[in-house]
Amino acid sequence: MTRSRLLDEIKQTRPFRSKAAEAGIALLRTANIVHREADAIAATEGISLAQYNVLRILRGARGPLPTMEIAERLIEQTPGITRLVTNLEQQGLVKREQWAGDRRQILCQITPAGLKLLERLDGAMDEYDDRALGNLNESELETLIDLLDRIRNGPPPS
């Protein structure tokens, strides 16, 4: 059995207890690397990757969304959705207003400034996606997407 490249990367001397453990660590390490690099791109415009995600959700919605629906759509679930939206509102990138149909519900909408910020980031994020996954061909990307879907959806029912 050959030594895992991941063992060398994380300077672990003992083998993983199983291939599942190794795959789990590899997935977490890869996700962390991808996250850090994408976060650095978002930071060039003074926002975090989570805030970038909120803006993309609002742009894609093509209309106001309740705060809790934004939270459900986030790539990385966070309990701090109110803080994220508040920070974006303070920067003039989103606006919030009470919904006339239910005064307890707050609707959020991206502003023209938020749309412009996303336009500035779109090219760099697209280039990063292509660069980060550029060593995989279309078939491998499809396989990766399928495998990740299976992991997210959990084991089959017993």
What's the helix and strand layout?
Blueprint: H1 5-9, H2 19-43, H3 49-61, E1 65-66, H4 67-73, H5 81-90, E2 94-99, E3 102-110, H6 112-132, H7 138-153
Antiparallel strand pairs: 1-3, 2-3
Helix pairs in contact: 2-6
- Rg: 19 Å
Number of helices: 7
Quaternary state reads: single chain
| Average pLDDT taken over every residue | 89
Shape: globular
User: What's the SSE pattern?
Assistant: HHHEHHEEHH
Give the low-pLDDT segments. none
Largest sheet, described in full? Answer: 3 strands, antiparallel
Strand content: 5-15%
Share in helix: 55-70%
Characterization of the model:
There is one protein chain. The chain has helices at 5-9, 19-43, 49-61, 67-73, 81-90, 112-132, 138-153; strands at residues 65-66, 94-99, 102-110. The chain has 158 residues and is mainly alpha-helical. A hairpin with a 2-residue loop joins strand 2 (94-99) and strand 3 (102-110). The two termini are 32 Å apart.
In short:
With 158 residues, this protein is mostly helical.
Name its key features:
single chain; 158 residues; mainly alpha; three-stranded antiparallel sheet; globular
